[in-house]
């Protein structure tokens, strides 16, 4: 094993898979019976994780547009790693959202009885579009290395690489040129698709006019910024781990700081407008996470650990890669709190006066706290994603293929 | 306002109205409901009638009775607002469904196809009236001890109620062990299965205050049409533009 931390992480993910399998068993054997969400808060931890994974997906998107659209060469080496990350996070997103469905085996319904008027339908279309873009994109980025590994008879599994390279044994300059043309085309394509994809997640919530906290044109924009922030932080952190090059980390740190400040500005704006509107539904929802029972998730986890400390580190130590990576790590691990804070408060406010006194059942209450089963399923999905990522970076040339990519931008 | 006492039980009139409506071309019928909150005494009989009719499991409820407090001390009051699905004419829930598993029928009832619904619960989030609930597969008798014999114990208790097939949408839905409607969004469907055989919805017949009026809202001779014309009429959250087919009388 190359690195000790990598080996430890792999062991950790296996433990995660074993521990999480209890939650998976509960979910697969008893459906949603063992979960805490109900009919008034129909979406819970898993949807928050879906949004969290979505954000991580944005990392590669950021790299793509900075590298191939804005032609910033510095980040080009990260291209293949970023594309691979996007596929892993998309896999996690699809997995956790499927587990959240009451009848996951009916997903074929999206094909046979689609509703083009539904935002959720478009979301699925864009998730699939992202796959359609990123699978070939990654393939063309690593094809040269795949051929080389396939030709290397001393390499374990070289036949698999030969198979993945579709039997090709030589990589000509024409092939290289062609692959670069293809990746450039896919990058341009990913720009509009990616923006719509991230915005569409926000639009799912924003179009609901019965949800006053969400129902604003600003929400899709906030979702795009949130995705870029967590994704940018993830890529910077990974860059620190896999390509610890100061010239790469420092500019990425600046980008993350800029996005962090913009995101905080938008968030503050949303709260200002919400409070000033003095609409009871909005004020109650905002109060719920700002001064409600979970105030700490907002103030301590999100504002302090996830925003102020990283901002301080990024401003104070912009030239220190370790500090930049630490700031990004803090942003990533606290981002779930941001997602939960967007999701739960609007759901957790009764939308009709008197509803609280009608029917007493735990599924018909606005209080929602994820239970152990929900956390265990999330642990299982994260562990699977992390394991796929670690084994992928080991068994696929996603890090190696990045070398020299800058010349082709 | 002085009003004449009704000459006959409104149920009898509604039954007559229903018979007349069912003779019409189905596409010409538009079902509607009027709830007179001045008559509702908050007994919850309609909730129970609905639960029993549709064999609703724990946590699934189609028709609740909201309790609102009005005025300021010492001039306080309390009123009851039964809330079924309002069968909106412009329903946000159906637009949300990604797989067209829920839609408005030609007769104006908003229904769910349990065999199509993937259980994403987006319609629950989209409904402004919290009129949809998700079936999580719970059993009232889950905690009941099993005893031998046919009269007592878990199985006997379940057979007495929740293991009975519900007749919703004219089908038998007996399987509460994972198959639909477990895992689906569920909601009031105006008891379409009862209407089909000439019976009024369960909430309407069980309402002891005769506060619930049901019928074809396009039939000028029907009681429901008459009630919709009342100056006391209003709808819930009118500002949202959902245009409910369930009206209220102040
Ligand atoms: S009340 Fe809710 S569930 Fe019923 S039609 Fe209107 S939006 Fe749909
Ligand atoms: S829960 Fe069922 S009916 Fe509701 S939006 Fe999802 S698929 Fe459609």
Identify the notable features of this structure and list them briefly:
heterodimer, B: four-stranded mixed β-sheet, 8 helices, binds iron/sulfur cluster
Question: Any overview of this molecule?
Answer:
The complex is a heterodimer of chains A (409) and B (250). Chain A has a domain at 239-350. Chain A is mainly α and 409 residues long. Chain A contains 13 helices and no strands. By secondary structure, chain B is α+β, with helices and mostly antiparallel strands. Chain B contains eight helices and ten strands. Chain B has helices at 10-23, 45-54, 92-96, 122-126, 153-160, 192-196, 202-206, 223-228; strands at 31-36, 64-72, 75-83, 102-104, 110-112, 133-134, 185-186, 212-216, 233-234, 246-249. In chain B, a hairpin with a 5-residue loop joins strand 4 (102-104) and strand 5 (110-112). The radius of gyration of chain B is 19 Å and the shape is globular. The mean pLDDT of chain B is 92. At the A-B interface, helix 5 of A face strand 2, helix 3, helix 4 and strand 6 of B. The complex binds iron/sulfur cluster (SF4) (2 copies).
């Amino acid at each position: 094993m190359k690195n000790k931390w990598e080996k430890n992480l792999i062991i950790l993910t296996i433990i995660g898979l074993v521990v999480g399998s209890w939650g998976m068993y509960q979910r697969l054997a008893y459906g949603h019976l063992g979960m805490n969400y109900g009919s008034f808060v129909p979406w819970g931890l898993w949807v928050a994780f879906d949004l969290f994974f979505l954000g991580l997906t944005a990392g590669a998107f950021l790299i793509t547009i900075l590298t191939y659209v804005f032609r910033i060469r510095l980040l080009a080496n990260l291209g293949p790693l970023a594309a691979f990350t996007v596929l892993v996070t998309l896999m996690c997103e699809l997995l956790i959202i499927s587990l959240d469905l009451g009848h996951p085996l009916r997903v074929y319904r999206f094909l046979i009885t689609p509703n083009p008027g539904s935002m959720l339908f478009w979301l699925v279309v864009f998730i699939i579009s992202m796959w359609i873009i990123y699978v070939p994109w990654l393939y063309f980025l690593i094809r040269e290395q795949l051929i080389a590994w396939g030709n290397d008879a001393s390499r374990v599994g070289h036949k698999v690489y030969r198979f993945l390279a579709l039997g090709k044994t030589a990589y000509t300059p024409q092939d290289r040129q062609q692959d670069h043309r293809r990746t450039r085309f896919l990058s341009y394509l990913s720009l509009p698709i990616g923006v719509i994809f991230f915005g569409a997640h926000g639009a799912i919530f924003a179009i609901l006019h019965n949800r006053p906290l969400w129902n604003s044109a600003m929400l899709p924009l906030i979702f795009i910024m949130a995705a870029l922030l967590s994704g940018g932080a993830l890529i910077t952190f990974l860059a620190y781990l896999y390509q610890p090059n100061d010239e790469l980390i420092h500019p990425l740190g600046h980008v993350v700081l800029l996005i962090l400040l913009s995101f905080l500005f938008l968030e503050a704006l949303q709260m200002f407008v919400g409070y000033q509107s003095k609409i009871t539904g909005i004020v109650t929802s905002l109060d719920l996470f700002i001064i409600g029972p979970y105030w700490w998730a907002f103030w301590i986890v999100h504002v302090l650990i996830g925003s102020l400390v990283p901002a301080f580190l990024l401003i104070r130590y912009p030239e220190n890669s370790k500090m930049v990576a630490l700031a990004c790590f803090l942003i990533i691990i606290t981002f779930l709190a941001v997602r939960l804070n967007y999701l739960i408060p609007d759901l957790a406010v009764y939308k009709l006066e008197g509803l609280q006194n009608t029917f007493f059942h735990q599924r018909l209450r606005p209080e929602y706290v994820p239970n152990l089963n929900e956390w265990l399923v999330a642990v299982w999905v994260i562990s699977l994603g992390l394991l796929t990522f670690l084994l992928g970076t080991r068994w696929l040339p996603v890090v190696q293929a990045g070398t020299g990519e800058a010349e082709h931008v | 306002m002085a009003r004449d006492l009704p000459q006959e039980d409104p149920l009898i009139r509604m039954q007559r109205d229903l018979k007349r409506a069912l003779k019409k071309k189905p596409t010409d019928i538009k079902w509607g409901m009027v709830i007179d909150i001045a008559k509702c005494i908050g007994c919850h009989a309609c909730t129970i009638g609905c639960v029993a009719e549709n064999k609703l499991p724990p946590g699934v409820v189609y028709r609740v009775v909201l309790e609102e407090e009005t005025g300021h001390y010492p001039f306080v009051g309390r009123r009851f607002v039964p809330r079924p699905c309002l069968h909106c004419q412009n329903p946000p829930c159906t637009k949300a469904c990604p797989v067209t598993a829920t839609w408005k029928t030609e007769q104006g009832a908003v229904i769910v196809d349990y065999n199509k619904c993937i259980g994403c619960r987006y319609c629950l989030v989209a409904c402004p009236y919290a009129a949809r609930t998700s079936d999580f597969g719970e059993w009232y008798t889950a905690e009941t001890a099993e005893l031998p014999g046919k009269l007592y114990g878990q199985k006997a208790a379940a057979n007495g109620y929740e293991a009975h097939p519900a007749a919703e949408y004219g089908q038998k839905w007996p399987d509460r062990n994972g198959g639909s409607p477990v895992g689906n969004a569920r909601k009031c469907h105006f008891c379409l299965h009862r209407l089909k055989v000439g019976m009024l919805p369960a909430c309407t017949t069980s309402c002891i205050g005769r506060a619930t009026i049901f019928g074809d809202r396009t039939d000028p001779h029907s009681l429901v049409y008459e009630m919709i014309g009342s100056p006391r009429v209003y709808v819930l959250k009118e500002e949202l533009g959902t245009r409910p087919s369930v009206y209220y009388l102040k």
